Amino acid sequence: MIRANTDEKWLPLYEALASNVRLSIIKLLAEQPLNIKELAAKLNLSSAIVTMHVRKLEEVGITESKMIRKNGGTHKINSLSVDWIEIAMPQKAQNSRKYQEVSIPIGHYTECEVHPTCGLSTTEKVIGQYDDPRYFLDPERVNAHILWFGKGFVEYKIPNYVLQGHSLTEIELSFEIGSEAPGVNPNWPSDISFTLNGVKLGTWTSPGDSGHGRGVFTPDWWLDDVNQYGLLKIIRVTPMGTFIDGQRMSDVTITDIPVNRNQWTFRLATADDAKHVGGLTLYGEGFGNYNQNIILRLYHE
């Protein structure tokens, strides 16, 4: 799954789709995985030309290739790595609303309690060692752009830049998140709860941990069989209740959230007593499919 929009960064994706040959390759790979020679035969093209087209599709995450033993030899087999592509069009202009926005890097949590499997990484290297919670307190953690744990919580303190005299009308939190399975597993449900200023906003069940293809922004050095991407979730706390991706999550309204003049405290957690204890993975800039940190947006009037 790829969710794109009209930003310029998605031009390579659209350019990859703007070819009759590459569209034919997608259709063929939807039927079955094939190597370059098999694709070339079906398209009546040379292997060199087909290789060029497949490379363009692979660079944007539409296809992937793996070395597979077949008929006594090793073959590079190509297959689709996404089931569908969604393009979000710009929203029709509405009456503009005033808001303050803060982007919080993944490693800037202020409190945590994590249990293996766990780890964190910058866009260049893993911090410390896998499955050792001590490294979640390492000074270099502030440079982390991805983190994961089997159970526990991370908590962020976020500055409140809304001025006194302004009245909050809506709180919006967005982030890319998924479960945390040993390796990857698309069928690995996890009940993840969200708390803002001590008030539980609700619980969302993540369906799984990556599972199919590489993250669009995940670094090239990152292993194929570990966390690749999550789902972009948007939580909105309104006067009518709390919603996640437009679906009601709880009856907590904006007036139920105590306001601290200086800061907001946001916690993401998986509890021992949850029905599905499947951990969580948080993706920040440089990882996953959305290239964003945790974003808090405060609408006011």
Automatic annotation (TrEMBL):
Gene3D superfamilies reported in the protein's UniProt record: Winged helix-like DNA-binding domain superfamily/Winged helix DNA-binding domain
Query: Keyword DNA-binding: yes or no?
Result: yes
Q: Which residues form the HTH arsR-type domain?
A: 2-96
UniProt cross-references to PROSITE patterns, sorted A to Z:
HTH_ARSR_2 (PS50987)
Q: Does the keyword Transcription regulation apply?
A: no
Q: Which UniProt keywords apply?
A: DNA-binding
What CDD domains has UniProt attached to this entry? HTH_ARSR (cd00090)
Protein name, per record: ArsR family transcriptional regulator
Which organism does this sequence originate in?
Paenibacillus polygoni
